[in-house]
Amino acid sequence: MPKEMPTMREAIESKGYSRRDFLKYCSAAAAILGIEAAGLPSIVRAFETKPRPPVIWLHFQECTCCSESFIRSTHPIVADVIFDYLSLDYTETLMAAAGHQAEKSYQDTIKNYAGQYILLVEGSIPAGNDGVFCMIGGRSAEQIIQEAAKDAAAVIAWGSCASNGCVQNANPNPTNATPIHKIINKPVINVPGCPPIADVMTGVITHLLVYGGSPELDSQGRPKEFYSRRVHDTCYRRPYYDAGMFVESFDDENARKGYCLYKVGCRGPVTYNACSVTKWNGGVSYPIQSGHGCIGCSENGFWDNGPFYQHLASFPGFGIESTADTIGTAVGVAATAGVAAHAIVANIRKRKLVKELKDESVEINDEDKGGNS
Amino acid sequence: MATKRIVVDPVTRIEGHLRVEAVVENGIITDAFSSGTMVRGLEIILKGRDPRDAWAFTQRACGVCTTVHALASVRTVEDAVGISVPKNAELIRNIMEAALYVQDHVVHFYHLHALDWVDVVSALSADPKETSRIAQSISHWPKSSVGYFKDVATRLKTFVESGQLGIFANGYWGHKAMKLPPEINLLAVAHYLEALEWQKEIVKIHAIFGGKNPHPNYLVGGVPCSINLNEVNAINSERLNHVSKLITDAMQFVNQVYIPDLMAIAPYYKDWGAIGGGMENFLCYGDFPTHGYNQTDSFKFPRGIILGQNLNEVVEVDARDPQQIKEYIKHSWYKYGAGDEAGLHPWEGETEFNFTGPKPPFDQLDVQNKYSWIKTPRWKDKAMEVGPLSRMLVAYAAGVTEVQDIVNDTLARLNVPVGALFSTLGRTAARGLETKLIVGWLKGFFDDLVTNVKAGDTTTFTKEKWEPSSWPQSCEGVGMTEAPRGALAHFIKINSGKIENYQLVVPTTWNASPRDPSGQKSAYETALIGTPIADKDMPLEILRTIHSFDPCLACSVHLYDPDGKHIHDIKVV
């Protein structure tokens, strides 16, 4: 065994943890990955002996924006991730091999590292129809995902396509695009967004592999670390919302002062994501900061919660203590809006304002488009 | 005679799902079939929606060439309803598009294409001193010391010796067609890593103006960001300084890393100046308007067509003319009301799924019949190649001096004839040359923006026709652009403020499509014919030519349903 690079065990122990801590980490990892107790030794063995965890990244119905986002990671930079932290054995976007040679890389990993490899999935699965809407190497997406998921130690659904079906799942969903948690019989960590923020993607991986323990997931399988706050709750323009100062039309006087974008359609109030805290591209900006409302790209069914430039019906001005677990999706938001309306209005001015907005607004579509429900 | 059908599926280091089947006789490809194997149905999904939202939907056609569909989409709506965007919006759109080009082409060269030419394992035996000498002889790029290349070599060695080759596993290392000396391989590996780190920087321009990348925000009627030099909450001097810095860095990277590397590698592969050609006709819609989308004579890339490789004439193209652009489905998994032989202009397009291929799992497609989810577009029933080579050829023939100069200079430096342009090497070189031009234009667009803002114009959006109530009852538009991969057009029909019909005819549809009813091949299938295959089990040469087009498959597969059903439930209360 070449020893230039530390194994997971060495890496953990070099950080001052004991063998006992390491085993605890392994069992925590096994728990979150849904591995039976009997499978634990294989995880321990994998992290003790394999320098870098093997990873398979599959592509189905997608646009590759998740892969593109991933390579935008600023901390860590992606070269360090794929050359030092992981062994990215299969990814159609970056791998040197093609065709049979690519297939060999994939087969080698699922055979040689059964129960040990991490499966990352980009894209939805067109379920049924004999699988003809997405075929790779002559096999259907569904055939491939079932095979790849079978012995995976963990499954991460990258982006909205894999987590909730995204754009191809929008009405009338012509190809029956289906999120992967509805296809495979395994726990899935959903990392939605179109795409997810690069540093969130590498953050989730790091959480899983380096920090040990489980990233806590909400009821939709999303890591709470990044998806427990609404964009609205931590938006730097929130004070303008609270004060009733709104952009009425793009590039008007208020837009030039950076007022709240709620009235031009911002979905920040019903969108759980890290955009307003972590921000994009190394913290440079996020949609609202650059003058466009959030379109809610990490929420189930967001494509059908439009038109994008019509503002939401009343939304619950829940306090920042609320999380996706207590509110659920946009669906839940709409359903509880009536109750919530009382909670938000901290003063008369705001109450009047919210009422005015409600009168001319659009109602959220109440069709459930996904989730681990 | 030894005949063999080689199947490459998946074709990797591309966007999307592409399958290539090639017939090889005595070591030469004699026939080839290109198949798009994934479909999503974006155009069905668009029907009935607000045209102002279409940019976001169509942008999700592709996350690699993110921005180009958004741009084509806002243009098609503006064209349909009659909106001219403010000067600043035109400039910011140009800046975003140019930034995408530079990022996309650099990533293509190093991360999608380089491993066809660069032998990573051979780099292990490089002498870092010699690599350093070569690096310093071709460029002023500061990361060129012996110690630097030693470190890269050590990192590579550690990686390879770990026994876990990750993305480099089962690559075509040691293949007979790999020709670079170890020292240049090491140089390329070092720059592979540097480019991977740099590419995340240039797209910060998208984050500044569009809030994020991939998939920055666009807006019908302008751009969503406002400019206010007296406000921290808008595009101000700090934001503009940031953009300026990113552009300066991009110019350095392109001029000191990408172009010198391209010119250092090309001489070892001059034989590829005679392989991978075969296409006669080249289409370019033109782009980078400097005085409005309708002033095509103001475009940095001129619009036009080259027929029969004749660089003495540029033929006009009109995407609105129903006789010029048509799509066929004879070999695509759709059906037309008028039958499989018919061709339809995108405004009148129709599609219904009609999968007739083998059910997965399968070994080979039925290439005598339908074999792809990609339709086959034609201009006046002629097959067209689109992409960087087409842009360079049209601009060259149209007399754009800076294009003529850079092309002539490159041909002279490589000591190859003009005919070498029509090849795999020509395509790859054209991509580099246009990047060099575009990064200069990027600086120019930014300077123009500063000048305009300084003169007191800060408008970025026109509200005039924002409300659908101000639009004609029914109207139609075409939004054209040049995506990094070639000519892209979106066609829209609007009725009562809603999308009645939406069609995307994208670059990879032109290039990767199956043959048309007359049996005429499109670009991929044409270009592969005549390619030598040294080792039929290691079809590296197929990858070289296919990658020279920079395939983008998710974009290329689309459909339209004339009887489109109910779209979505939005209640306005």
Summarize this structure as a short list of keywords or feature phrases.
heterodimer, A: 373 residues, alpha/beta, Rossmann fold, Cytochrome-c3 Hydrogenase, Chain A, domain 2, 5-stranded parallel beta sheet, two-stranded antiparallel ribbon, globular, disordered C terminus, B: 573 residues, alpha+beta, Cytochrome-c3 Hydrogenase, chain B, 3-stranded antiparallel beta sheet, 16 helices, 38% helix, 12% strand
Q: Pairing-aware structural class of the strands and helices of chain B?
A: alpha+beta
The helix content of chain B, as a percent range, equals: 25-40%
CATH topology of the domain at 84-277 and 424-463 in chain B: Cytochrome-c3 Hydrogenase, chain B
- Low-pLDDT sequence parts of chain A: 32-40, 316-349, 363-373
**CATH superfamily membership of the domain at 84-277 and 424-463 in chain B, which one?**
Cytochrome-c3 Hydrogenase, chain B
Low-confidence stretches of chain B: 559-573
Strand order of the largest sheet of chain A: 2-1-3-7-9
Bulk shape of chain B: globular
Strand and helix order of chain A: HHHEHHEHEEEEHEHEEHHHHHHHHH
Rg of chain A, alpha carbons:
22 Å
Main beta sheet of chain B = 3 strands, antiparallel
CATH topology type of the largest domain in chain A: Rossmann fold
Named CATH architecture of the largest domain in chain A: 3-Layer(aba) Sandwich
